[in-house]
UniProtKB/TrEMBL annotation:
<protein>
    <recommendedName>
        <fullName>Protein kinase domain-containing protein</fullName>
    </recommendedName>
</protein>
<keyword id="KW-0418">Kinase</keyword>
<dbReference type="InterPro" id="IPR008271">
    <property type="entry name" value="Ser/Thr_kinase_AS"/>
</dbReference>
<keyword id="KW-0808">Transferase</keyword>
<dbReference type="GO" id="GO:0005524">
    <property type="term" value="F:ATP binding"/>
</dbReference>
<dbReference type="InterPro" id="IPR001245">
    <property type="entry name" value="Ser-Thr/Tyr_kinase_cat_dom"/>
</dbReference>
<dbReference type="InterPro" id="IPR011009">
    <property type="entry name" value="Kinase-like_dom_sf"/>
</dbReference>
<keyword id="KW-0067">ATP-binding</keyword>
<feature type="domain" description="Protein kinase">
    <location>
        <begin position="45"/>
        <end position="312"/>
    </location>
</feature>
<keyword id="KW-0547">Nucleotide-binding</keyword>
<dbReference type="GO" id="GO:0004674">
    <property type="term" value="F:protein serine/threonine kinase activity"/>
</dbReference>
<feature type="region of interest" description="Disordered">
    <location>
        <begin position="318"/>
        <end position="369"/>
    </location>
</feature>
<keyword id="KW-0723">Serine/threonine-protein kinase</keyword>
<dbReference type="Pfam" id="PF07714">
    <property type="entry name" value="PK_Tyr_Ser-Thr"/>
</dbReference>
<dbReference type="InterPro" id="IPR000719">
    <property type="entry name" value="Prot_kinase_dom"/>
</dbReference>
Length: 369
C-alpha cells in the first residue's frame, strides 16, 4: 500500500504524490497528510527513499498521481541555502525550459515549509559515476557526450534565456543523468539573472570551481561559468575532483604539454587506456583555455558547444572510415543532421542505455549529433 500526500501548494493545486516503498508501519497507509502543515514531520520520518543530500536539504523519490516519477527537495532547517535561494530557484526554473536543464514540476512554500518538485533523474549525479565504486566507469566517448550536454544547457542559460542567467555553481554533483545518460544542469539556488545582481559581498559557490577573478573582485560573469565548466571538463578527463588536487595536476601537465600534445598523462586510470589520444588532447587543450586566468581569453559557451560537437563529428567520421575499411559491406549513409532549437539532431535513433549512447553514432547516429 501507499501513503498518499496532498500537496495543496503545488502548481497546479491539489496534486497528489504517492510515496513509494514506505516501511509497513501499521495505521499509516491510506492517511492523507497536508505537507504544508505540521504533518511534514511524519513525511520526513517515514519517507525512506532518500536519493541525495545537498546544501538545500534532503532529496526524496516520489510518484505523482499522473504516474510521473519525481524528485522532491525539502529545505532543511539548518540548510546552507535559505528562502532567498529557494525563491530564486522557483522563479528561474519556472521560466527556463531546456532538455539539458533539470525541469521543475512544482513547489511548496507555505508556513515556513519549502519543497521543490523536479523531474526524477534516475542515474543520479555525474559525481557519483566518477567517484563511486557502485557504478561502472564512464567510457571516454560518454564523457564527451556528457560535456556537450552540460555545455548546451549553459549555452541556453547564457544566450537563450531572457534575461541571461549565470549558474554560479557548476560542479559534477550538480550535473544529473537521466535514464539514457543524458546530462542536465541542476541546482539553481545560487543562480542570478545577468542584468540583476552581479556583485555580492560574500563569496558563494564551491571552492575549486570558483573563478579566481570572482574571488578577487566579487563579480560573477558568464566567463565565471566558463571557468567552472573548464574545471568540470578536467574532472571528466582525469576522474579527480578539485579537492583531490585536480588543478595542481592540470597545471603540472600544462607545463609539459605543448598545446594539443601530452595531456594524455592525466587521463583517468579507470579508462584503462581506452580513449582516443588525439581527442583527449584536443578536449584538454580547450579545457585549459576555459580556465585561463584572464576571463577575456576564455571561450564563450557557444564556442564550447561548437568545439565539442566537432570533436564528436570527427570521431564519427573516423569510426565510419575504419568500419568501411574492415567490412566488405558498404558503410551506412551519412546522418541527416539538422539544427533544432540550437541543438544538433539526427533522425532514427533512440538512446536507452550507456552503451547505446556510446555506440549510437556508429550504428544509426545518435539523435543529438
Amino acid at each position: 500500500m501507499e501513503l498518499i500526500l496532498v500537496l495543496s501548494c503545488l502548481i497546479p493545486p491539489l496534486v497528489l504524490i504517492h510515496l513509494l516503498s514506505l516501511p509497513r508501519m501499521g495505521g499509516l497507509f491510506g492517511l492523507k497528510v497536508l505537507v504544508r502543515r505540521v504533518m511534514l514531520s511524519l513525511l520526513l520520518a517515514f519517507w525512506n527513499i532518500l536519493t541525495g543530500q545537498g546544501a538545500f536539504g534532503p532529496v526524496y523519490k516520489a510518484q505523482m498521481s499522473t504516474g510521473e516519477i519525481v524528485a522532491v527537495k525539502v529545505l532543511a532547517t539548518d540548510s546552507k541555502q535559505g528562502e532567498k535561494e529557494f525563491q530564486t530557484e522557483v522563479m528561474l526554473l519556472g521560466r527556463l525550459h531546456h532538455r539539458n536543464l533539470v525541469n521543475l514540476v512544482g513547489y511548496c512554500a507555505e508556513k515556513g515549509q519549502h519543497m521543490l518538485i523536479y523531474v526524477y533523474m534516475s542515474k543520479g549525479s555525474l559525481a557519483s559515476h566518477l567517484y563511486s565504486d557502485k557504478h561502472e566507469p564512464l567510457s571516454w566517448d560518454l564523457r564527451v557526450y556528457i560535456a556537450l550536454d552540460v555545455a548546451r544547457g549553459l549555452e541556453y542559460l547564457h544566450d537563450g534565456a531572457v534575461p541571461p542567467v549565470i549558474h554560479r555553481d557548476i560542479k559534477s554533483s550538480n550535473i544529473l543523468l537521466d535514464q539514457s545518460m543524458r546530462a542536465r544542469v541542476a541546482d539553481f539556488g545560487l543562480s542570478r539573472e545577468e542584468m540583476v545582481d552581479k556583485h555580492a559581498a560574500n563569496i558563494r559557490g564551491t571552492f575549486g570551481y570558483l573563478d579566481p577573478e570572482y574571488i578577487s573582485t566579487r563579480t560573477f560573469t558568464k566567463k565565471s561559468d566558463v571557468y567552472g565548466f573548464g574545471v568540470l571538463l578536467f574532472e571528466l578527463i582525469a576522474g579527480r575532483n578539485p579537492q583531490q588536487g585536480l588543478m595542481e595536476l592540470v597545471e603540472l601537465a600544462a607545463m609539459n604539454a605543448e598545446e594539443k600534445v601530452g595531456w594524455e598523462e592525466i587521463v583517468d586510470s579507470k579508462l584503462d587506456g581506452r580513449f582516443d589520444i588525439q581527442e583527449v588532447n584536443e578536449v584538454a587543450a580547450f579545457a585549459y583555455k576555459c580556465i585561463s586566468r584572464a576571463p577575456r581569453k576564455r571561450p564563450n559557451m557557444r564556442d564550447i558547444v561548437q568545439v565539442l560537437t566537432r570533436v564528436i563529428k570527427v570521431r564519427h567520421c573516423r569510426k565510419r572510415q575504419k568500419s568501411s575499411l574492415s567490412s566488405p559491406r558498404p558503410p551506412p549513409p551519412p546522418p541527416v543532421v539538422e539544427e533544432s532549437e540550437g541543438e544538433l539532431t539526427a533522425n532514427g535513433s533512440i538512446r536507452s542505455e550507456t552503451h547505446r549512447r556510446d555506440n549510437s553514432v556508429d550504428s544509426s547516429i545518435a539523435e543529438d549529433l
